[in-house]
Structure formats: C-alpha cells, structure tokens
C-alpha cells in the first residue's frame, strides 16, 4: 500500500541523487592550513598539489559522485601543472556549474573533518558559510562536524587530517 494525497508527487518525477566523498592529506610544516576555504591558524598545513583543502575535496567528490561525473582526480589531476596551488573553492564552484548543466542542484551537504588538532569549533560557522556560498545553497544546508580519532592512527598522531562528505542532489529548480 502506498500513501498518496492530493499533494503527492509521482515517484517517477522525483530524482534524488546522493554522493559521498572522502579525502586525507598529510600535515607538513611550512604550509598554510585551509579547510572549507578558510585559513586556519595552525603551525602546519596540508601537503598536496593544490591548496590541499581536504574538506572541500571530499565535498567535490561527493557532488561529482551524486551527479555521476566521476571523481576529483579525473577532472583536476594532481599531475596537471594548471592545478598547482589551486584554490579548491574555485574548483567547487566549477563543479557546481557542471552539476547544474546536468539538471541538478545541491540540496544539502553533511561533512566531517577528522583532526586531532587544531580545534575547529571557532571556524565552523565561517567554513559552513563559505562552502554554502560557493555551492549556492543556504548556510543551514551545509553542515560541518569535526571529530578526533582519540589519538589513534596517523590522524591521532597529528600526521594528517581527513574529511568525509555526503551530498544530496535534486532536480534543478525543483523543491523536493
């Protein structure tokens, strides 16, 4: 039995897509730490070809996956000199344009940063707002959590930082 009402949308007209992303980078002295497009005050940064923003990279992968567009490495390879020191927020904006061209828009994103240090709570709101603006969504549609690994593994030893993200895409212009 299927519940219906005069306001029900036929199932075949609802096309929701979900994607997930995951990224980790090693910490390195002499680099700035960027998470979600915000520079974090810390004595190390993440090693990588671009700005190494693991949070934005995980979100990009989640969006690309939801849209069926592969992964970040396919579109922004780390052996391409044109992406050396690239601003990941710019890459995120580009990916959002591709998603809109496929007929989708971002509904919401839920992300987690895995870091023993630094504490991210002072930066949480600024990060959420920066990412939401880049994706063209309301700030309350971008949720960020941060957690430690209780000193376990390379994250717990302070050797790196990681992130995971889930993104829900909906048909562009539609409210679901």
Automatic annotation (TrEMBL):
Residues 16-169 form the 2-C-methyl-D-erythritol 2,4-cyclodiphosphate synthase domain. The keyword Endoplasmic reticulum does not apply. It is an enzyme of class 4 (lyase). Its cofactor is a divalent metal cation. Pathway: Isoprenoid biosynthesis; isopentenyl diphosphate biosynthesis via DXP pathway; isopentenyl diphosphate from 1-deoxy-D-xylulose 5-phosphate: step 4/6. The keyword Lyase applies. One of its GO terms (molecular function) is 2-C-methyl-D-erythritol 2,4-cyclodiphosphate synthase activity. Pfam families: YgbB. Its EC number is 4.6.1.12. A divalent metal cation binds at residues 23, 25, 57. 4-CDP-2-C-methyl-D-erythritol 2-phosphate binds at residues 23-25, 49-50, 71-73, 76-80, 147-150, 154, 157. It comes from the Bacteria. Binds 1 divalent metal cation per subunit. Keywords: Isoprene biosynthesis, Lyase, Metal-binding. The record marks 49, 148 as: Transition state stabilizer. It catalyses: 4-CDP-2-C-methyl-D-erythritol 2-phosphate = 2-C-methyl-D-erythritol 2,4-cyclic diphosphate + CMP. GO terms for biological process: isopentenyl diphosphate biosynthetic process, methylerythritol 4-phosphate pathway; terpenoid biosynthetic process. HAMAP family: IspF. PANTHER family: 2-C-METHYL-D-ERYTHRITOL 2,4-CYCLODIPHOSPHATE SYNTHASE, CHLOROPLASTIC. Involved in the biosynthesis of isopentenyl diphosphate (IPP) and dimethylallyl diphosphate (DMAPP), two major building blocks of isoprenoid compounds. Catalyzes the conversion of 4-diphosphocytidyl-2-C-methyl-D-erythritol 2-phosphate (CDP-ME2P) to 2-C-methyl-D-erythritol 2,4-cyclodiphosphate (ME-CPP) with a corresponding release of cytidine 5-monophosphate (CMP). Homotrimer. Belongs to the IspF family. This is 2-C-methyl-D-erythritol 2,4-cyclodiphosphate synthase. It comes from Desulfomonile tiedjei. The gene is ispF.
């Amino acid at each position: 039995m299927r519940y219906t009402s005069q306001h029900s949308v036929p199932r075949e007209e609802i096309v929701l897509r979900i994607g997930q992303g995951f990224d980790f980078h090693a910490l390195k002295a002499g680099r700035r730490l960027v998470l979600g497009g915000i520079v974090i005050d810390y004595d190390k940064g993440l090693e990588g070809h671009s700005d190494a923003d693991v949070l934005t990279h995980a979100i990009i992968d989640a969006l690309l996956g939801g849209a069926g567009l592969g992964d970040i490495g396919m579109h922004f390879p780390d052996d391409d000199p044109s992406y050396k020191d690239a601003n990941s927020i710019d890459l995120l904006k580009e990916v959002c344009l591709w998603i809109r061209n496929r007929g989708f828009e971002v509904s919401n994103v839920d992300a987690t940063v895995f870091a023993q240090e630094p504490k991210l709570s002072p930066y949480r709101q600024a990060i959420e707002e920066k990412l939401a603006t880049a994706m063209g969504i309301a700030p309350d549609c971008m949720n960020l959590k941060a957690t430690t690994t209780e000193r376990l593994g390379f994250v717990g030893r302070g050797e790196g930082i990681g992130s995971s993200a889930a993104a829900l895409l909906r048909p562009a212009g539609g409210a679901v």
